[in-house]
Amino acid sequence: MRICAILLAAGLCLPGYAEIAGYQGLVRVVVRQYESGQVLAADEQVASYPQPGVQLPLQVVARAGGRQENAAGSVAAQFADPLELGRPNPEEFAVNLALLTAQASPYFAGLATTQERREIVLTPAEVPGVVSGQHVRLAGRFYLDGALALFSPIHGADLSTASVKLHVSVVRSAEGEADQTVFSGSLELLGGSDGSVQQIAEGDFPVDRVIRTDLSAFVEEFELFEVLILPRLILRYSYEAVIDRPFVLTATLEVAAVNAPQQVGVAAVLGTPVDSIRQVISAVQGEKAAGKALAALAAERARPTGQPAFPEVRPAAPLCGPLGVESALGLLALTVPQPLRWWRRMH
After folding, report:
1. Which of 15, 42, 124, 150 has its CA 20 to 30 Å from the CA of residue 221?
2. Is the residue at 150 inside a domain?
3. Which domain holds residue 288?
4. Are the beta carbons of 71 and 100 closer than 8 angstroms?
5. pTM to 2 decimals?
6. Do the domain assignments include residue 344?
7. Is residue 89 situated within a structural domain?
8. DSSP state of 316
9. 343 found inside a domain
10. Which of 245, 264, 256, 235 is nearest to 330 (CA)?
11. What is the pLDDT of residues 173-201, one digit of tens each?
């Protein structure tokens, strides 16, 4: 784990070491099937690490509906062992959500939550020139790669109840101190009653590189296929720490989505795999449509062809230059050789 320590007095970025005392992971997925406002079916799955008998990766899937109902919802999440990863790896924290209905009813709501908690200590040996009890400022970042989508085979469909929203937060906590949210941001695709789709960004989310594109030309089964591409985004944050005083960083990624009746679907893919999207589209629109949708989405993620979703936003200035990674979530960069307690030299 790489840390950039900025001495408050000098304002300098210095390379050092980082001691990680431990980490915990949590994944939770929920899908609910509604009709006329009433819950017809629900599925919820939760897993956490460490727990007796639990091994990594954590993988959970919740499903409702199916091919016979012409309506399906599936939500999957994964937390892989960060100790085994030598570079940014989207499989460490992966979310895969898809909801689609081919009839007037029912509709679905899905939720995926992934969380990682890291216990950290910064010692004088890790940052040259500091002493125990001294305040330093740390720069952190993590990597996010994926896409949000809203689609329908009907031109001008009523999308007013359809949405898919991603929210990311990082909270710093320490004994005897109030918790501090050092990063909080969201990105959302929201449908309108006239068939329009708008993108909304809130908080700290870096949107200067987010791409909005229409993939309907590549999937003729869908008249509407609006996508937000998140191409290897870097989410940056900073916070204070005290030398020799333990603290905790808790990073949470949440995807919440609702589709609409009358053949309106929503999807989110962060990292890999994409099995849920294939299963849901196949159950409602067939294997051919599912294959085309996945191929178009994968191609757009690899080489975005759309336009900036927020053209008025200028690129953000780098935080502490190229230094300063203190990773806190699975869609991020980690290289750690030993479990529970390790040291890692920056660069």
Report:
1. 42
2. yes
3. 4-337
4. yes
5. 0.84
6. no
7. yes
8. P
9. no
10. 235
11. 999 999 999 999 999 999 999 999 999 99
